[in-house]
Amino acid sequence: MTDAALSAPLSSRRATIGRLLSDPATVAGLVLCSVVVAGALLAPWLSPRDPLEQNIIDRLTGPGSEYLLGTDQFGRDVLSRLLWGARISLMVSFLSISAALVIGGAIGMISGYIGGRFDLVTMQVMDVLLSFPSLVLGMIMVALLGSSITNLIIAIALTAIAPFARIARAPVLVIKERAFIEAGRALGFSHLRILLVHVLPNIVTDLLVMGTLWMATAVRTEASLSFIGLGVKPPTSTWGGMMRDGFENILDSPWLCIWPGLAILVLVLGLNLVGDGLCDVTDPKATQ
Amino acid sequence: MIVFVVRRLLTSIPTLLAVLTLVFLLVRVVPGDPAIAILGDRATPETLAALRAELGLDRWIGTQYFEFLGHALRGDLGTSMVTHRAVWTEIAEALPHTIVLTLAAMAIGCLIGIPSGVWAALHRNGTIDVLTRLLSLLGLSFPVFVSGIFLLIVFALQLHLFPVIGNPRPGDWVDGLHKLVLPAITLGIVMAAYVVRVTRSSMLQVLGEDYIRTARAKGVSRRGIIWRHGLGNALIPVVTVVGLYVGILIGNSVLTEIVFNRPGLGKVIVSALTQRDYTMLQGMMVIYCFLIVIVNLITDISYGLIDPRVKQ
Q1: Out of A79, A84, B203, B242, which could bridge A51 as a Cys pair, Cβ 3.0 to 4.6 Å?
Q2: Which residue would you say has higher pLDDT here, B176 or B255?
């Protein structure tokens, strides 16, 4: 991204969107994501039953006409739980990555802008954070904070701050030496104004592309934590939690693992396809 | 080369210190009293005070920090609060299982990933290339516990080719190898998916270089161009990714070990998490970071081996 791209006429942005929509893989990704988002938004209307309603007589019923995707060990309708679970996956991943994007982006931007020792120390801290395996860091954070949706969001956000800081910092180092920033300083603009008005627009595309790809990671992390039993507490339905319950009954009811597994796969694959398409359009060299 | 290795070793010391500091802070900065978390809300003030004294939490934080650093640098990670055995002993028992799994997954990832990446690059934009890209994206999208469970359903429950439980009999390496196959494939799939993508793009870049054209003009065989001049140079970014990916592999091995019920660090960390074994968690974090720092070190040293320019 350069400042030339910033002042790109509207028609060029339309062309970018056009290029994005002409790639079948990206369109497929958009469709997959839309299906999940629609399922989550319309859950109250689409769910055949209450996701928490237990019918012990019908427990572990296979997929059929009465229960389209079968029932779990408490006789709860798997389809309804799947639809409501989509809300948790989307909410946790969206909020945690938004937080990581804003905090990480701000850290990277400020660090790169100030430079010097401050930059050195900040980036060293970010490297240390990066060196933790993110799943292990997430597990430990949730265990220390206690498992609730808010803590889950904080833990996942924490695992993703460092990469955003890195991606925001690199272009700032180049941009801050440019003539238009110097001109801004000469005109007496405050540092905050320079950062927000002149630097931010130049890195926002990179951050958003990263955000899409990291949302896919966040969905995986949330599901993994719920699978280990560190996610949102039962009986709230989450895809990872459904897999955990299903795993206990895998010998006689494997579908309990298959449906939520496919749901996670559809959402993560959709986000990855869209993220990849965005990467191609914004930086064709990256995925050549 | 020796100078390069020594210099690299020295630069990893500050990182290691920073990691230890972060681990120390993480466990202490998080809100809530560990003593209450361990003993529960109904514990009497006396028992809480006794536990705080046992954990050293009643002392000045600076003293705690230097004591922690001193012990950690001497390899003393404390005693587990649940089993009362040395943290290092528990970890040392589990670590080889995790390392074997990780290495097997790395091998599978590279054996599938590198040739497929080269193949895709040679058939750029053809059917093979598109198929490889889609498959690699699919591989990247599977959380390991999902792919693990799917493999378990197909190959263990339906086809009965592999055992459901992956706890190997001690001393029986044939059994061990048999039980390693599914978990290693589970972890290896994601690794292969990463390696394919990087090998492909790196190979494409290298094949466009002038020296490849020169080699071709000199009459070097197609095989020589692809493997010696092409892949030889394209491998450097692949090594970086493999190195970076080991961290993700170690993290994901936790899930694989749970799904296949295998011994390893995964089981240790999950039981430490559920039992709120703080000393164990702290020790695990130190070990995980230590492993990553070592892997980064090996990655950097292997640059030196592959790329003579790095040595200088």
Answers
A1: A84
A2: B255
